[in-house]
Design a protein that fits this description.
39% of the residues lie in helices and 28% in strands. By secondary structure, it is of the alpha+beta class. Strands 1-2-3-4 form a four-stranded antiparallel sheet. Helix 2 runs antiparallel to helix 3. The longest helix has 53 residues. The radius of gyration is 37 Å and the shape is elongated.
Length: 211
């Protein structure tokens, strides 16, 4: 017979109160660690994406600058010089602006059309803190003069780049080595006239003392 003064045994529990609290705290800590790992992972992923986006933007700017600096449309010289200016910054931009009339005059006198195509491009340096970069760009430049066959040559450029108003532009441009002829005649060599007769044999001089 059960004694009513003696309380009934409590129902079975899976653990004591300290154990339950310990498990709860551990779960909270684990959740916090998981959230923290996810947050830092997100930050790393975001930083990597920002660097990748900056790298792509700088490379696009290098390509565009190389094209604009190696192109002249004789039918729109002012527009061509304006494109050069749009792809440059700093001292280089100032030099083009100061010599704008001279560049336009020389381009108008030569009446040459220059077309540029980027063959390859790569960044050699990238500083995301200062928004500076260096690029190596290989360009195929086609020169077309009136009444002459086009000449295509390969030119390698090194570009110092700087971000300006959200656009990467050339602060300095330098060619590496000599241009390499791809098509046409070598620069500076005169084309042979189409109907030039072959030179006649030079007659041998007469012997002295002859009749």
């Amino acid at each position: 017979m059960t004694d009513p003064a003696v309380p009934a045994s409590p129902p079975d529990r899976k653990g004591s109160l300290p154990q339950i609290l310990a498990v709860t705290v551990a779960a909270v800590v684990a959740l916090a660690a998981l959230v923290g790992a996810g947050w830092f992972g997100y930050q790393w992923a975001t930083a990597d994406k920002q660097i990748a986006d900056t790298r792509d933007a700088a490379l696009d700017g290098a390509r565009q600058a190389a094209i604009n600096l190696n192109s002249i449309n004789p039918d729109d010289i002012e527009g061509s010089v304006a494109l050069m200016e749009s792809s440059t910054t700093g001292d280089m931009h100032d030099q083009i602006e100061q010599n704008r009339d001279q560049v336009a005059q020389l381009a108008g006198q030569s009446k040459a059309r220059l077309d540029a195509e980027v063959l390859s491009a790569a960044l050699t340096e990238l500083n995301t803190d200062d928004d500076n970069a260096k690029a190596l760009v290989v360009v195929a430049q086609t020169s077309t003069y009136p009444n002459q066959q086009p000449t295509k040559q390969r030119v390698t450029w090194t570009l110092d780049l700087s971000e300006s108003d959200g656009v990467w532009k050339a602060a300095q441009a330098t060619t590496m080595g000599q241009p390499v002829l791809l098509e046409g005649r070598a620069a500076g060599s005169a084309p042979a006239p189409a109907d030039t007769p072959a030179p006649a044999d030079t007659p041998a001089p007469a012997e002295e003392g002859g009749p």
